[in-house]
Each structure stands twice: as C-alpha cells, then as structure tokens.
Write a structure and sequence with these properties.
140 residues, alpha+beta, 3-stranded antiparallel β-sheet
Length: 140
C-alpha cells in the first residue's frame, strides 16, 4: 500500500537526484575555479552516490494503489491511481488494472533511465575534456 510518507520520500529523492544532476553540469562549466580538482572529486562522489540510488530505486519500486471509481460502461472504466512516486490522477480507459500497474512501472523505469542518460552525458563530457577518466567512475 502506498502511504503519503512513501510518496514524499520518492518525490523528494527524485527531486534531489534531478537537482544534483543539474548542479553537476553547472560545476563542470565553471572551469575558472581555483579548486577544480576538489570540485571534480566532489562530482565523482555525487555521481557514484546517484548511481547507487538508481539501483536502489529500480529494486525498491512500489506498485500504485488503483481504485476503480466507475464500473465498465461500453468497455471504459474509471480508475483513481495513487502512485508512490508521482502525483495521484484519475483516468478513464479501456485498459485493465494490471495494464495500469505495468504502465506505472514502465514509466517509473523510463524516468530513472532519463536521469541515467543525463549522468552518462556529464561523464562523457568530463572524459572528453580530459578532466577525468573511466577509472574515476568505478563504483566502490
């Protein structure tokens, strides 16, 4: 069952990951900084932490609570979906409850993959610029 506390935890953590990704890009673009090496080390630690979080969230997905609010009429039913990681919503569809479960998980994984692509892009930029190597990103 999806509680408000679980939803808050997911939303906050996904927001933190998003903000961390954006701030990493900003630090990288500030090449004039005296303490570039310290910033690079901090970025590598942040990237490793975010990658561990990706694995944690992929493995700890919680299915939404789906309540049927109107019976099927001409094949269409109304559902109220309370997802643990995004806003609640109401939907009228021909899809079944099981299909909605599957779509929620697929969408959740796509969001995580989107974050992962952003991280990989930042890594490639840092490696291409010669600031870091692949060995710097090996997860401990």
């Amino acid at each position: 069952m999806c509680t408000i506390f679980v939803k808050k935890r997911y939303n906050e953590r996904l927001l933190q990951m998003s903000l961390a990704i954006m701030s990493l890009g900003q630090h990288y673009r500030d090449k004039s900084s005296k303490d570039l090496r310290r910033k690079l080390n901090r970025m590598v630690r942040s990237l490793k932490k975010i990658e561990k979080d990706f694995e944690h969230y992929k493995n700890s997905y919680e299915p939404p609570e789906i309540i049927e609010i109107s019976p099927r009429d001409c094949g269409v039913a109304g559902f109220y979906v309370m997802s643990c990681w995004r806003d609640d919503f109401e939907i009228y569809t021909r899809e079944t409850r099981e299909e909605l479960f599957s779509q929620d998980k697929d969408f959740f994984l796509k969001v995580l993959d989107m974050f992962k692509l952003d991280i990989n892009s930042i890594k490639r930029e840092l490696i291409a610029e010669g600031f870091l190597t692949e060995a710097d990103f090996i997860i401990d």
